[in-house]
Amino acid sequence: MPDSPKLDTTDRRIIRALQRNGRMTNLDLAAEVNLSPSPCLRRLRILENTNVIQGYSIDVDAKVYGLPVTVFVRVSLENHTESVVANFERQIRDTPEVLECFVMTGLADYLLRVVVADLEDYERFVRARLHPIGGISSIDTSFVYGVVKKTAVYPEVEGSGG
């Protein structure tokens, strides 16, 4: 993989514009970041080829899709041997209900963002997906009942002007 470039103000403006609308044309992107189309496309390709931009996705209404319940699950492991950690992380990577898994400091070892259809589906997830992994000492659950803010757009970086 090529080295990541040092980002400048224009690179960050390109990224933020695409985070707001990943389907915009290069012509629209160039106009928004005040570049001509050719240099804009060249910068975009560099950002993609160096994995600064790691992919494009869409934001889907989970309720309409059929997974209206979001759950944050804090998981602590019994011990932290290389094999226990590797097994847990491998199993979680292969669990489709887990959209994100973060390694944490503090009381829990991991924070999972899980989507399910309902409370019964969450119970099935715990019993059929988490418990069989083994090596888990505790599972602490928080159900989301509202969203105050959701964005995929990074804040501006001090001094980036973008």
Explained architecture:
The protein is of the alpha+beta class. Helix content is 38%, strand content 19%. It contains six helices and four strands. The protein has helices at residues 9-20, 26-33, 37-49, 62-65, 82-93, 119-130; strands at 69-77, 98-103, 110-116, 136-143. It has a four-stranded antiparallel sheet with strand order 2-3-1-4. Helix 1 (9-20) packs across helix 2 and helix 2 crosses helix 3. The protein is elongated. The two termini are 27 Å apart.
Give a brief description:
38% of the residues lie in helices and 19% in strands.
Helix-strand blueprint:
Elements: H1 9-20, H2 26-33, H3 37-49, H4 62-65, E1 69-77, H5 82-93, E2 98-103, E3 110-116, H6 119-130, E4 136-143
Helix pairs in contact: 1-2, 2-3
Low-confidence stretches: none
Computed structural class: alpha+beta
- The percent range for strand residues is 15-25%
* Backbone CA Rg: 20 Å
Biggest β-sheet, characterized? 4 strands, antiparallel
Shape: elongated
Mean pLDDT: 94
Helix content: 25-40%
How many strand elements?
4
Task: Give the strand line-up of the largest sheet.
Answer: 2-3-1-4
Number of helices: 6
Query: Distance N terminus to C terminus?
Result: 27 Å
How do the helices and strands follow one another from N- to C-terminus?
A: HHHHEHEEHE
